[in-house]
Design brief:
Length: 311
């Protein structure tokens, strides 16, 4: 795709610098809109996600590169949840004067994340504003997008990875403690489980959601969409060091996947392929729609999960 030359001005100088830094990872930037090919027989899958200073992160918690990485991966995680393959990323950045010097480093983080998820950066916007905000739109394609609504009674419930790191890191930072590196890395450098989701979709996964609000809260969304009951036993939930299962179950911004699928998934093959756990946590039933959670055989009520408009 041919590049289009950008006109003069400081904003365009900043865009030029970002595009230069992204190198081959930036594609077709400079026209009014991006033009992308979608493979025959596949559907376009699109999602957008915003990361706002003071809401999603604080300056003292993350490097500028981590801010760019995290915002991009968070957006790409929604494509993973749909078992879609990322093809393009657009980044609309609001950058206050106090952050302007960090823009190149934020761009590096965005570029690294784009590289990791295998998508080109195909456009975006830059604006002045009061707080740093990164709005990242991701475009992907899929032959058979995996939805939240496909869970069926008789399916098993599975999760990827280990939980609790981001919740623990934020709690420590808010209490002015230094989190363990494992927890802070899970917040600062999350992964989008893209290949993992495709692997699961190819092996009969029926529904999927990525964990952004917290495991139990997000399972509630899946249960509502599928009109099923999800019965979860937290005993087997893998947790990062020094985090309880109850805390892990409400930790947000994990970007792990919860998937419903046949009970005979080949866990060994998954773990060999990806080097992270795939854990069976429960079952899907035809009972009252919702989530029922137990720990050590006792029912637990977990209210939690992040609701931006709850305050
Ligand atoms: Mg999501």
């Amino acid at each position: 795709m041919a590049e289009t030359r950008l006109g003069p001005g400081r904003e365009f100088d900043a865009i030029r610098a970002l595009v230069a830094r992204w190198g081959a990872r930036a594609r077709g930037i400079g026209d009014d809109a991006a033009v992308l090919d979608v493979p025959d027989g596949e559907q376009l899958v699109v999602s957008t996600d915003v990361s706002v200073e003071h809401v999603h992160f604080r300056r003292e918690w993350l490097t500028a590169g981590e801010i760019g990485w995290r915002a991009t991966v968070a957006a790409a995680s929604d494509l993973a949840a749909m078992a879609a393959t990322p093809i393009g990323i657009l980044t609309a950045l609001t950058v206050p004067p106090s952050w302007r010097g960090e823009l190149p480093a934020i761009g590096v983080g965005i570029g690294e994340a784009a590289e990791r998820v295998g998508a080109a950066i195909v456009g975006g916007d830059l604006s002045d504003g009061d707080v740093l905000s990164l709005a990242v739109t991701v475009l992907g394609c899929s032959r058979r997008p995996l939805r939240r609504s496909g869970a069926k009674p008789g399916d098993a419930l599975w999760v990827t990875g280990a939980f609790g790191g981001p919740g623990r890191a934020v709690r420590d930072w808010l209490a002015l403690r230094t989190p363990l590196a494992e927890a802070s890395l899970r917040f600062a450098r999350p992964s989008a489980r893209i290949a993992h989701a495709r692997w699961l979709a190819e092996r009969g996964a029926t529904a999927c959601i990525d964990i952004s609000d917290g495991l139990v809260a997000d399972l509630g969304h899946l249960a509502a969409a599928s009109e099923v009951r999800v019965e979860v036993a937290l005993d087997a939930l893998p947790c990062v060091a020094d985090v309880s299962r109850l805390d892990a179950a409400v930790s947000g911004e994990e970007y792990e996947l919860a998937v419903t699928a046949p009970a005979d998934l080949d866990v060994g093959a998954f773990e060999l392929a990806f080097g992270i756990p795939l854990t069976r946590l429960g079952v899907v039933t035809a009972g009252d729609p919702g989530v029922a959670v137990t720990l050590e055989g006792s029912r637990v009520e977990l209210t939690g999960g992040y609701d931006h408009f709850s305050l």
